[in-house]
């Protein structure tokens, strides 16, 4: 279990796993009043949360599948990344990909957050790379 410092300026409970084996914790909107997202509109939704991630970790902000399926609501920069050195409020950049208005209410679950370990890369300049069966084959190269 990883301990992470969190400041909660919202009136909502801390993010939590909804099921025993869930990877993501739901984030809730922290709003003074409901916000309407028009079709194809993008809006930055505050959560009231600030976190202090350990070095070597990131928090990924991902869409909620139910909002995407039922209402066409997604996240523009999905997954969004919160770096270990960021201390500002977590905000979620929602987009309405449907043809109808969508109303976001205070306390509504708007995204999920996954905390993950990552590596720091040290590039090693080279003149050739090891060979593989795939090689340089790119998008759709297998014909499947």
Automatic annotation (TrEMBL):
InterPro entries, sorted: dUTPase, dUTPase-like, dUTPase-like_sf, dUTPase_trimeric
Reactions the enzyme catalyzes: dUTP + H2O = dUMP + diphosphate + H(+)
One GO MF term attached to the UniProt entry: dUTP diphosphatase activity
dUTPase-like domain sequence ranges: 14-143
Region (Disordered): 125-144
EC number: 3.6.1.23
Pathway: Pyrimidine metabolism; dUMP biosynthesis; dUMP from dCTP (dUTP route): step 2/2
Function: This enzyme is involved in nucleotide metabolism: it produces dUMP, the immediate precursor of thymidine nucleotides and it decreases the intracellular concentration of dUTP so that uracil cannot be incorporated into DNA.
Record family assignment: Belongs to the dUTPase family.
HAMAP family cross-referenced by the UniProt entry: dUTPase_bact
Official protein name in the record: Deoxyuridine 5'-triphosphate nucleotidohydrolase
